Amino acid sequence: MFKIIEKMELKSINKVISNGYCLGCGLCHAIEKNTEIVEKNGNLVSNYSKKDRGHIAVCPGAGYDIVDFGKRIHFAKNYSYELGWYNELNLVQSLDATLLKKASSGGAMTTISLFMLEKGYADGVICTKYTYDSPTPRPTTYIARNKEELIEAQGSKYCPTSTLSILSQLKTEEKYVLIGTPCQIAGWRKYQEVLNPSINIVLTLANFCGGYRDFREIDHFVHNVAKFDGVRYFQHRGDGVPGLMKIVNNSGREWKYPYPKYAQLSPIQKNNRCVYCIDATGELADISCGDAWIKRITDTGEAWSTIILRNKRAQKLFSEMLEAKLFNIGKITENEVVESQRLNITSKKYRQYKRIKIKKILLQRVPDWYDGIKNVGGFYVDECKILLSKFVHSKLSILYKR
Predict the structure, then answer these.
(1) How far apart are CA 145 and CA 114, in angstroms?
(2) What is the model's pLDDT at position 7?
(3) What angle, 0 to 180 degrees and rounded to 10, lies between the N-to-C axes of helices 380-401 and 352-361?
């Protein structure tokens, strides 16, 4: 039995890819220049095909010990099973009206990034925007070096992004801020620790994340819902709280639908690796930001962000920003942060034990997390239904392509 379980581990990049856990994060491309990140079945996937020479050690798709890793990175005073290691929790609202206008919530990440550029703490910010070279939008990672370029990246990207592929283009003499999803930040941390590259990323910012659906969802909204052939603008969220999806076609016609209600119009399921993720709040980033979905905030109709400062470096930077009067600031408790992210935390933290156990009973591979995942919620029947649904959906996708 031990040998069978051992064989089910994700011991190579190729196993990660073949089992559907590749995130298309771009690390393979950064390490092996001949490796590309390609779109396949709506997802971004590495075409890595060489013999694995230790690359699995940096792959975020394979999992990681999130608790021990966070402890070693942050040296923080507080630990929460739901939120990870941290020093300080706050509510913030950018005082820059231009940045707040297009933000998904309180404009925290853009305001922090702009401060880093203007103070000379960073030469560029690694971020992502939509481009429109194809009939439907696709994300492009780039280096923003001023306010105008940062504004282009504003707004949530609920789709695959190959953010870390740009690491191969960075200059060793420059300093960068990295904005990414929790898994992309984890990929950078593993890459940094294992391979010790000469890249100087001085700050990492992660958004809270409930997972994403693939590009087929964007295509569905453009072609089947909005019924547009071509697009010149697309946003998943923006224009107020909680925001809305907006699609503008080449002739200027607009289609809008409120967030998060538009998810009900989508037949596309969540990315497979996202289903087995245990990081809801970017636990390995210096600073994590997300929506403050609590009644006392949402009742105001104002845009605020929750911000988690995970280490002393983040706290020092935040203090400077407060002195410069760049934020309105409010208080939020740990329980309130957990409650504001209840849906994501329930899926990623409380139900994950049963979900992973079922996969292992079926002798199916899963990312290798730490041993402390708690059995505190969910039902085995529900998790079996999820597995069955994803299996049926994958088969229907194959038939649809034919």
Answers:
(1) 9
(2) 47
(3) 70
